[in-house]
From TrEMBL:
It holds the Pfam family Ribonuclease_P. It comes from Reichenbachiella carrageenanivorans. RNaseP catalyzes the removal of the 5'-leader sequence from pre-tRNA to produce the mature 5'-terminus. It can also cleave other RNA substrates such as 4.5S RNA. The protein component plays an auxiliary but essential role in vivo by binding to the 5'-leader sequence and broadening the substrate specificity of the ribozyme. It catalyses: Endonucleolytic cleavage of RNA, removing 5'-extranucleotides from tRNA precursor. This is Ribonuclease P protein component.
Length: 133
């Protein structure tokens, strides 16, 4: 039973990992680097010293999806796939360094979970390659 609880805690997505600071978001879009990996546009920035974990922001355009139900579904898919695969980011940076990441969904249609999850994993590997340079 304790093994299940430990696994559950490692795959959680708590409030501390959600990017909500306007100051950090502005810095991310002003100074951060970016790349495009269909269906995502990914922006990232090395966090400042007071960060305690990687932080993520997910955005879906109202222009492409008029109904809030559709936007919320896409965000749920992206959050769930990130939650299950965020361990891939653990070995990217040295101890004490963290990333601020923004995923912007740019596709015009809602893709199934399997597609979104595989593309998110591939985008994390591309992000790791960009950070190694």
């Amino acid at each position: 039973m304790e093994g299940k609880n430990q696994t559950y805690r490692n795959c959680s997505f708590p409030k501390s990992e959600r990017l909500s600071s306007k100051k950090i978001i502005d810095a991310l879009f002003a100074k951060g680097a970016s790349f495009y990996f269909y269906p995502f546009s990914v922006r990232f920035l090395l966090a400042d010293e007071q960060a305690s974990c990687h932080q993520l922001m997910i955005s879906v355009s109202k222009r492409n999806f008029k109904r809030a139900v559709d936007r919320n579904r896409i965000k749920r898919l992206m959050r769930e796939s990130y939650r299950l695969h965020k361990y891939l980011l653990s070995d990217v940076l040295p101890e004490g360094k963290f990333l601020v990441i923004a995923y912007i969904y740019t596709a015009k249609e809602i893709h199934p979970y399997s597609f979104v999850a595989s593309k998110l994993v591939d985008s994390i590997s591309r992000l790791k390659a960009k950070l190694d340079k």
